[in-house]
Design goal:
By secondary structure, this protein is α+β, with helices and mostly antiparallel strands. The chain folds into 2 domains: about 280 residues, Malate/L-lactate/L-sulpholactate dehydrogenase, NADPH binding domain (Ribosomal Protein S8, Chain: A, domain 1), CATH 3.30.1370; about 40 residues, 2-Layer Sandwich (Wheat Germ Agglutinin (Isolectin 2), domain 1). The strands form 3 sheets. It has a 7-stranded mixed beta sheet with strand order 2-3-4-12-5-7-8, with helices on both faces. Strands 6-11-9-10 form a 4-stranded mixed beta sheet. Helix 1 crosses helix 2 and helix 1 runs parallel beside helix 13. It starts with a strand and ends in a 6-residue tail after the last helix.
Length: about 350
C-alpha cells in the first residue's frame, strides 16, 4: 500500500496516542519516524515503533512528559526532557538555539534525562533550515567494543553534521561510530542474513558473522582505533560534559538492550556568516565551490540517496509491504497490548 507523508504520519501518531503518549510526545515521534520511512531509512522508520512501545510498556520512559527549557544566559541552553523522548525536547529548544547562535555565532543545547531511539539527521536538517551549521551527538548503551577490546563498553554513539546550502538540500552526514547501527544487525537477524566480515565479535571476543551471536557479543567501531577514539569523544562530550549518562551507565540503568536507552544529547549550532565576518568571500559560495568540485569528480555527497528517496516519496507516496501495514493496523487496534 502507498501512503502520503501526511497520512502515514497521522497513522503513526494515532498509534502512539492509543498507547498513552501525550500529544507533545506522539507528534514529535511520528514526525521523525515517518521522515525515516520517507527517506528510505528503514532502520529508523516504522520498524522503530515497536521498540518505542516496548520501552513505554516497560515503564522506562514517561509517555506524558513535558520538556522544560532553561534559556540560561550566553551560549549554553538546556532542556530537561523530564524522562520523555529526546525529539520533543529538541523541538522545544530549537528556536532559542537558532536565535542564540545567530546572536553569538555559536550556541549549544544540552538535552538531559531523555530516551533516544531516532536518527540525528532530522535534527541536523532542522538547524540547517535556519541557515546554520550543526553538529549533533549522543551516547547510547554499551554494545560496542573499543578497538582492541573484547567486550561491549562504548555505545553506537552517532555523530551528525549539517551545512546549509541556500536553494539546495543541505550537506548532511549522520553515522554511528560503530561499523553499523544496531538496527542494521537486528534487520539482518530478522532476514536470516549473515553479517559482513568485520562488523562484530561474539561473547568470547571472536569475530562472527552471525547476527544472533553479534547481538550477544559486541559490535566493532568503524576504522579501528579512529572510530574508537571518536566514539569515546562522544561519551565525554555528550555524556560526561553535560552531566548525563555514558553508555555503560545507561546500560546499567536500563538493564537490557531490548529497550530504548536513556541518557543525554548535545546539539551545537554555528553561524557561518559570523565566523567568516571580516574575512574575504561568502562562506556559502565558497562551500559550493568545494562541494561541486566533489560531485564534479563523480563522487556522491552523503545523503544524496536519501534526498532522492524523499523526492520520490513526496511525489509518489511511501510504499509499505503488506506485513508493515498489518503491523500498523495491529498496533493501532491493540496499543501496548500489541507488543511483548
Amino acid at each position: 500500500m502507498t501512503f502520503s507523508v501526511a497520512t502515514l504520519q497521522a497513522r503513526v501518531e494515532a498509534i502512539f496516542r492509543r498507547a498513552g503518549l501525550n500529544q507533545v510526545q506522539a507528534a514529535a515521534l511520528s514526525r521523525v519516524i515517518v521522515a525515516g520511512e520517507r527517506d528510505a531509512c528503514t532502520s529508523h522508520g516504522i520498524y522503530r515503533i515497536e521498540g518505542v512501545l516496548r520501552t513505554v510498556k516497560a515503564g522506562k520512559v514517561k509517555a506524558d512528559a513535558l520538556p522544560v527549557l532553561d534559556r540560561g544566559e550566553g551560549a549554553i541552553l538546556r532542556v530537561d526532557a523530564g524522562g520523555g523522548f529526546s525529539n520533543p525536547a529538541f523541538e522545544l529548544g530549537l528556536p532559542v538555539l537558532a536565535e542564540r547562535a545567530r546572536e553569538l555565532g555559536l550556541a549549544a543545547l544540552a538535552v538531559n534525562d531523555c530516551t533516544h531511539f531516532a536518527a540525528l539527521w532530522p535534527e541536523v536538517e532542522a538547524i540547517t533550515e535556519q541557515g546554520l551549521a550543526a553538529l549533533v551527538m549522543c551516547p547510547s548503551y554499551a554494545t560496542v567494543a573499543p578497538a582492541g577490546g573484547t567486550r561491549p563498553l562504548l555505545g553506537t554513539n552517532p555523530l551528525a553534521f549539517g551545512w546549509p546550502r541556500p536553494g539546495r538540500d543541505p550537506y548532511v552526514f549522520d553515522f554511528a561510530t560503530s561499523v553499523a547501527a544496531r538496527g542494521e544487525i537486528e534487520l539482518h537477524r530478522r532476514a536470516g542474513k549473515p553479517l559482513p566480515e568485520g562488523w562484530a565479535i561474539d561473547a568470547e571476543g571472536e569475530p562472527t558473522t552471525d547476527p544472533v551471536a553479534a547481538l550477544g557479543g559486541a559490535m566493532l567501531t568503524f576504522g579501528g582505533h579512529k572510530g574508537s577514539a571518536i566514539s569515546t569523544m562522544v561519551e565525554l562530550l555528550a555524556g560526561v560534559m553535560i552531566g548525563d549518562l555514558t553508555s555503560p551507565e545507561a546500560l546499567e540503568a536500563l538493564g537490557t538492550t531490548t529497550l530504548a536507552p536513556r541518557h543525554g544529547e548535545l546539539i551545537l549550532a554555528l553561524s557561518p556568516e559570523m565566523f567568516a565576518a571580516g574575512r574575504p568571500g561568502d562562506p556559502f559560495a565558497r562551500a559550493e565551490v568545494l562541494l561541486q568540485a566533489i560531485t564534479g569528480q563523480g563522487a556522491r555527497l552523503p545523503s544524496a540517496r536519501r534526498y532522492a528517496a524523499r523526492a520520490k516519496s513526496v511525489a509518489e507516496g511511501i510504499a509499505l509491504m503488506a506485513a508493515e501495514v498489518e503491523l500498523l493496523d495491529r498496533l493501532q487496534e491493540q496499543g501496548l497490548d500489541g507488543v511483548a
